Amino acid sequence: MNKVKNRTEILTFRVTPEEKKLIETKALSSYRLVSMYLRDCALDKEIIVIDGVKDVATELRRIGNNLNQITKAVNSGVYAVDLTETKKEVQKIWQSLNSLPQAVR
User: What is the pTM of this model?
Assistant: First the structure.
């Protein structure tokens, strides 16, 4: 079981506006939070950035939502469509994304 660490300590430091913008740009290109990025940098964790992965995940989420809506409509009798193959392909893509190392996500 992975134990969640209780982070209670706060670090504060000053940077120039240019440094702040650079740090935020780098952090937000691969992380949700600047603090996560800075912590990983400071603790010498490997940071891997794969361009486009976030966009692919977002688009897949949208496709999944659309498929769910269509599936609900089909199940309610509004449509008669076979989405089995489409759903399988979307699942394969999600599995590929999920198989990426945790450092990439």
Answer: 0.48
